[in-house]
Description:
heterotrimer; A: elongated; disordered N terminus; disordered C terminus; B: alpha/beta; globular
Amino acid sequence: MTTALLKQPTQAPAARKANRSFVHGLLTNKKALLGMTVMIVFIALALLAPVLFPGDPSRITAMASLEPDAEHWLGTTAKGQDVLALTVHGSRSSLFVGLTVGLASTFIGILVGLASAYFGKFIDEALSLVTNVFLLLPGLPLLVILAAFLPPGLGTVILVLVVTGWAGSARVLRSQALSIRSKDFVAAAVVSGERAGRIMFREILPNMASIVMGTLLACVIYGIGAQAGLEFLGLGDVSTVSWGNNLFWAGNEGALLTGSWWVFVPSGVCIALVAFALALINYAVDEVTNPRLRKIKTPKTTPTKAETSTAK
Amino acid sequence: MTISQVSFGSHEPVLDVKNLTVKYIGDTRSTTAVDRVSFSIGTGEVFGLAGESGCGKSTIANSIMRLLKDPAKIAGGSISFGGKDVLAMSAEELRRFRWQDVAMVFQSAMNSLNPVMTIGDQIVDIFTTHAGYSRKESLRRAGELLELVRIDPARLKSYPHQLSGGMRQRAVIAMAVALKPSLLILDEPTTALDVVVQQEIMAQIKELQRELGFSVLFITHDMSLMVELSHRMAVMYGGRIVETAKAQDVYADPRHPYTQALMGAFPPLAGPRVPLTGLPDGVKFRNIPDLTEAAPGHFVAPFGADASVIDSTDFEGAAR
Amino acid sequence: MRFILRRLGFYLIAFWASITLNFLLPRFMPGDPVSRMFARSQDRMQPEQIEALRKLLGVDDRPIWEQYIDYLHNIFTGQMGVSISRFPTPVTEVISSQIGWTLLLGGTALVIAAVVGNLLGVLAAWRRGGAIDSALPPVLVFIGSFPYFWLAMGALYLFGVVLGWFPIRHAFTDGLEPAFTWEFIGDVGAHLVLPALTIVLVSIGGWMLGMRNTMIATNSEDYITMAEAKGLRPGRIMLRYAARNAMLPSVTSFGMGLGFVVGGALLTEVVFAYPGVGYQLLNAVQGLDYPLMQGLFLTITAAVLLANFLVDILYVRLDPRVRSN
């Protein structure tokens, strides 16, 4: 009987190869490209806003409620402010809050997920319970009541958004971490005495990379949308310029009733474009990592003629 | 009337597969899973198809019933059932052909049963769809079927997860013979069960086959089971058939080195202790040629240094 | 049965958490809310009511444990204080007068979105790569990217102001007497169209995609292959074998999605000045009506929990595997 010796599995090259094909998959995916292009445009606008529209965007520049014209591409508000300046500047606060909320929620979700998966038993039960309770409590009423009782300001906005948003990411990341935890290579790491921190962050976490990315994108989408909702109700930081606040003022000043559609359309469209772009990237990540969701390709060969063989 | 009832004389094969080729079409390249396979099964015959995982046996089974899913595609050859071309059937003809003329017992019964329907309802489905019986009549016949495989008819109201593994497999077998098909395909019917239950299931199948007289395509990697049940058998390797003959002949006189290795992997319980033999390390077969008759009724694919072996070091000695 | 009891226990814990949150929040707020409210009520508050308010918000000197027990007791006997903005109506009365509208709006929109969305999802998955599968999901997701309230504003502007097809505020025409006449019901219906349409448009994408993805996963299950092998008709396989199983995760996410729909309904009510609890909540916040705010929060939460519980009971009926455990 001949038996070959087991070779040590070469993990590093395999991981690098997997990453390269993932990145390659993303870059060739139409959805991902479209989404990333849109995001890059918005991020650029956000960063360049003080250059493109210097000064305070909420200052009064012209007559009230002007329709879009050559001087004011998107017209003016009921107070006489330049809508385009407000919109472009608005991207700064909205993107910033969205990103912060997304990162914070995902981070908490990772901690909860890894802790649940690794420590198991009581900690898992307790964390699950807390997560499920937060998932259950209706988001917007909770947001409203938190914002009403806490002092107004950007910090409060970010805080309440994270408090209402972390549970979603925690649930997804926990179930993913648990499924990885049950795999053999983690058991091997535990048995060989690896420290808890190493196992959680070096063994389990890297294998969750694509889910974490998807969760991050979802949390950012949540952050942007929920912030807009909060601000629309007047519970955000009213002193900053953001898309949600723009819409709040639009509602307050009766833009709809006076027919000034140019006041409320731009900010809403921006929110939708950013959310949609992020969602596209999210779907692309899903498709690249889960082959079943990809579009069905029709095979190039026609199954009619039998192949001629090289039979000897 | 089904096809089986119309076109058979006792000499016409029930199933005739010629040069069947199945490919898995990928993004950049394709893999040939079944490579110009030919065999035929006669009336009341049990034909065994053996080989290791991934050699293409299940793909053949799925092809016969045209159940292949993307990215698998039939790339060549023909399948005829009682003289009728299966590959040319329309969707509606195919739907009627399935289960009435050919039925299949899948490997894992638990996964093949709809978890939210009772066993009874799943059998009734067969009757109401194909035979047009009323629900009451279908339920009555379903009860009879369960009794045939020795399950209490009260179990008609049970859900799949409420039955044991062996019971589920027997229920699936009962479903398969519901319409008295001419050909029954058994795709690893006992692999997911423990040995004791295995024996019960095999006995059940033998009994049903004797009673109802259908042909069987028996797919497994368990050689001992196959030899016991089959009349004729074929051994597959890498998508091609390497040897085919009467089951006893393959058992007693395996000619191809792969068949020998396969037989050697199932040593008898009794008898002298011999070292386990298998294929030597690094031996692969490539470009397997077509079968030639090595003895009456015993076909083998020629092998040898130039025809079909690669990377072997000391082949002649290792094969023993 | 054990499943149901466990879920019930869970909902009770969640309700307790929201009560406790309600209890703790005003106590962590800076400043004295009571004097603020007293000022707003334009000095009309009686000393006992000021006292009651102090107790409710914890601005008195009792130890916190005593306050907590008292608070719990009040909640369970249905005393949620007196509303400041609608002085002197008790909070419970204010809420109960308007919760019906929210249920009407939310319920209608939810049912339409869920039923139509799921059907579209089933069809999209059954014919993968077909017209529905390729075109609808991106369109619906794009529409769903817009904030609820923005779509509401858009709908109000387009169909209400510009085209004038539908009324733009309130649940029924001012001055019309509520009665069970066709005229009234028709009027209510007309006022319901725009707000409900908004909620349906934003949420339907989620339903469709969820069901579609679940169906795709279900379609690759072995029992679907067996159903095809059995020669069953495609329609029956799609509905009785595939959709019936794919429905299960959909039902679970229905419960989760309820919280979302409530949020959406809230914002939509605000835009259309639809007199439901959402609109009320905003007014309460702007009017610093803390008792009403707290009462609304608890009521909304309780409703969501109850709905989730009902969904759980439905799930048990649908999935036999859960029943026997």
